[in-house]
């Protein structure tokens, strides 16, 4: 951040009065520009014993597989975000169920949420951000080609919980970035 | 938003290629400035049969009671945010437990999280944003002077769950703004 989005003057990084952290503060209109973590919301949509997965057509992780998920928008709920992302990336309609995982990713200032969901019909196809969309059984999932760690964790929780026959809410955090390739 | 925080030129509201919603886009450097919901994180800290509450010294809702809570910062986890807000607003140390409530507040583009927590000692006091801090029993809580609906809901869930002796995770949303005063 270099300029004030309110008045266009230069900003400087300093600790505002009564605050504890450095913020971008406008030198002219004194607006304090806070920066906050982002929510990424997705859906684990089931059809019988299969899960709806998308292969990414965009960076980061072009060509890798993921659950439909993306940045939450203003004016929507987390459940609406899960359904919207599924509609956009997999052109699929779901009934959103319970919140299933919440995973903090502090080193990129994100919080990832995944809802369990029920796929409503088989009329799905790749959206603009997907190369392909598929319904995959556990043994068909390309485990070494999953785009994001939080998605891989969510999928592993799912198949473990299905074997155990109960569905706890999983809440955890990733303390460290992934190792470099 | 009037100006680009990257280059200082004027922004315009338009739908970028491949997108579906209007965004603030810089006329000069073409940066797209997304706006996303914010996470508010708090703690419901227990000491025996009492709960730690703060009376607000700032707007909105000056003079009303709340659980220690505030906007999540970059580079922290949600549990760290709960502990930090409790340290700042109630100058209190807690052991953060399970995530207890997640309530969507789409009409102000926020998601509110509250963790259950254990107060570690009785050495607490009002931080800069609080008029006073108190440990209150259920019958001492000023129910008609609670600052925010999500906090009132969380407190009611707590006392109901305590009576029932089980502690489910509560995940819901507030569909409509509160009635005008
Ligand atoms: Zn300014
Ligand atoms: Zn610009």
Structural descriptors:
181 residues; alpha+beta; Ubiquitin Ligase Nedd4, Chain: W; Nucleoside Triphosphate Pyrophosphohydrolase; 2 helices; 36% strand; binds zinc ion; NUDIX_hydrolase_dom (chains A, B); Nudix_N (chains A, B); NUDIX_hydrolase-like_dom_sf (chains A, B); catalytic activity (chains A, B)
Coarse morphology of chain A:
elongated
Task: Give the DSSP E fraction of chain A (strand runs of 2 or more residues).
Answer: 35-45%
Structural category of chain A is alpha+beta
- What fold name stands as the CATH topology of the largest domain in chain A? Nucleoside Triphosphate Pyrophosphohydrolase
The domain tally of chain A reads 2
Q: Largest interface, per-chain counts?
A: A-B, 44 and 44 residues
Q: SSE string of chain A, helix = H, strand = E? A: EEEEEEEHEEEHE
Number of helices of chain A: 2
Outline the structure in words.
The structure is a homodimer of 181-residue chains. Chain A has 181 residues and is α+β, with helices and mostly antiparallel strands. Chain A has 2 domains: 1-35, Ubiquitin Ligase Nedd4, Chain: W (Single Sheet), CATH 2.20.70; 38-165, Alpha-Beta Complex (Nucleoside Triphosphate Pyrophosphohydrolase), CATH 3.90.79.10. Chain A is 16% helix and 36% strand. Chain A is built from 2 helices and 11 strands. The first copy, chain A, is elongated, with a radius of gyration of 19 Å. The two termini of chain A are 30 Å apart. At the A-B interface, helix 1 and strand 8 of A face helix 1 and strand 8 of B. Bound molecules: zinc ion (ZN) (2 copies).
